[in-house]
Design a protein that fits this description.
heterodimer; A: mainly alpha; 0% strand; B: alpha+beta; two-stranded antiparallel sheet; 40% helix
């Protein structure tokens, strides 16, 4: 099978809201003003109201009430609001109202959220400024799994079958055997089609191989570690629920030591508890 | 709770407040038990005073070492199953232990 064949079938998916693609493009050049960006977001009323609900939640812990998208941008910053919009937009793709996929989509969304929170917390240890970028990369890291489950369900069954019959096979082994490529590669291809920024493409493509990262080894390492920590805490349910291996490159890249881990897992669990209340799909 | 100098801190004490850097970043969150490693890290960062729980704190998060160890024993297999090999390298071993401790405390708090 060829990746482009799968990508061409992606029109069957619930669409990523137009505003998400538009917004990511807008933020690539830094010349757009607050009102312009707010105007783009406000075109989608459902999305705007979610952004405001999130901006006012305990997750961001703001002192004052935010009552407009432009105010949210001023208080939280362009990047955070863009990430909130992207995350809300992407969450729609995980919805599985008829429960007709073979994987537990709600569980995968919770895993995704856990990975986002964990990646953000790990990133904060090294560079607070990039922590929101790490969050959105965590939200998108497994998007390829959703594409596989929803567009090529027969192959998805075969992948799960291999894993069931041989517990020593990892998900990556099974995907490669059935498809010739992995969820990381298909996710990279779809995110490129959606014109996501380079650091997101890098994180999706290399979240299992952070040492190969081309653009943003810090963020890719944060997602690699965040993914493993999320699985170790059993936050949500990934299709590969076990921590298989962790590339030592990632620990070194972000200077995370064994002594940091007790505090880190406590912080992640606490933040996930808050995040879960506001990011549950509805 | 009581505020004490870093020199008077001992392993096994539990933080009653977050320890923050000068810039406000949380270095170690409240509820974490001090051990030789995080104590050294606090000293290296030049933290002078911290707030720890004392006998007057009967908060729900206070458990004896014995209770925690018992809970860790009960949940050992549950946490181990989340790893292909929980002893594959030193960092994975450390992650496993950190998660086991966290899980034990969470179970004891009834979450």
């Amino acid at each position: 099978m060829d990746i482009s064949q799968v990508i061409n079938r992606v029109s069957d998916l619930p669409a990523l809201p137009e505003v998400v693609i538009h917004l990511n493009n807008l933020l690539k050049d830094n010349s757009s003003g607050v009102d312009h960006v707010a105007g783009v977001i406000e075109k989608d009323a459902a999305l705007s109201s979610k952004v405001l609900r999130l901006a006012n939640s305990s997750y961001y812990g703001l002192a004052s009430q935010v009552d407009s998208v432009s105010r949210a941008i001023i208080v939280l910053g362009f990047n955070t609001v863009c990430n909130v919009v992207t995350s809300v937009g992407v969450s729609a793709i995980f919805k599985d109202p008829k429960k007709d996929t073979d994987i537990d989509m709600a569980g995968l969304w919770m895993h995704t959220l856990g990975c986002a929170v964990s990646s953000k917390k790990v990133m904060q240890k090294k560079n607070e400024q990039d922590s929101e970028k790490a969050f959105v990369c965590g939200i998108l890291h497994d998007i390829g799994k959703v594409i596989i489950a929803k567009t090529i369900p027969e192959e998805q069954k075969k992948i799960l079958g291999i894993m069931m019959s041989n517990p020593h096979k990892t998900l990556l082994d099974a995907e490669t055997a059935v498809l010739g490529f992995t969820h990381a590669e298909i996710g990279f291809a779809i995110a490129r089609k959606w014109h996501f920024p380079d650091y997101i493409l890098d994180a999706i493509r290399y979240h299992h191989h952070p040492a190969s990262a081309k653009i943003s080894p810090d963020i890719v390492s944060a997602v690699h570690l965040g993914n493993a920590i999320t699985k170790s805490l059993a936050l949500g349910k990934s299709t590969e629920p076990r921590v298989t291996s962790i590339d030592p490159f990632a620990w070194r890249q972000l200077d995370v030591k064994a002594v940091d881990l007790p505090a880190l897992v406590t912080e992640i669990q606490n933040e996930f508890d808050i995040a879960m209340e506001i990011w549950i799909l509805d | 709770m009581k505020t004490i100098n870093i020199e008077d801190c001992a392993e096994g004490m539990t933080l009653a407040h977050d320890v923050r850097s000068d810039s406000g970043q949380v270095l170690i969150p409240k509820g974490v038990m001090l051990n030789s490693e995080n104590l050294r890290s606090l000293r290296n960062r030049g933290i002078r005073k911290i707030v720890v729980q004392d006998d007057a704190d009967k908060g729900p998060a206070e458990f004896s070492r014995e209770e925690i160890e018992k809970a860790k024993e009960m949940y050992y297999d549950v946490v181990a199953e989340r790893f292909l090999d929980p002893a594959s390298d030193e960092m994975i071993k450390a992650l496993f232990q950190a998660v086991l401790e966290q899980t034990a405390r969470r179970v004891l708090s009834g979450k």
